[in-house]
Amino acid sequence: MKKNIFLLLALTLANFTFAQTRIIAHRGFHATQNSVRNSLSALKNAQDLNVYGSECDINETSDGVLVVAHGPLHGTYHIQQTDFRTLRQQLLQNGEVLPTLDEYLDMAKRKTSTKLIIEIKDHSTPQRETEVVKKVLKAVKQHKLQEHVEYIAFRQHVCDELVALGPKGIKVAYLNGTLSPEYCKGLGYTGIDYSIKVMKKNPQWIQDSHLLGLTVNVWTVNQTEDLQWCVDNGVDFITTDTPEEAIQIAEPKK
Ligand code: MG
Question: Which domain holds residue 201?
């Protein structure tokens, strides 16, 4: 009986703590004003929309420059096997240049109330991934944005290195959908960030995460019924290509 009362209290507290679903613009708010995914304008648009966060993807060029691009290709070039100068000559589809992480962090400083959600992409070896993690952490620190950046990755090694090498309180969520919330907690992650398909198969992971103090982010939620499902089930963050509609569903008072 006592145990049940404790559980009820914990659940109430968890629901209270994680009450509102917040919106993260997937690769920025790109579906507007001649913008494209992972561009500087997409980050600026997300800031202007007042969403919780703007997500971006980080790849390292062959000569060690961190660029914001989903990859693996930029045009016909393989980003991780091509030098920065060559990649930079190939413009994005709307005529913007391929942004570097430094340029992106400069734009992030323009409005720090919109968090930058940095996804570090898989690289060819664990060693290279560790180097990329170190470089990203250093750049974020240099730009004094540690309080305003959160990290995500599909590769467990990348998440582990972020936890091991990052500052105390670093926010790291695992994307791949293969680990239970308990396991993620044990690895020192602060959240799960799983696909809508995985979450609908494992809806109990929402409550499990909250009881463990983990956040729940779901990607990439673009359908109205899925957006509503996330809100109704107490998901903390929705990552979406349609942030305007998501705001209407998650934050109707705004
Ligand atoms: Mg991404």
Answer: 21-250
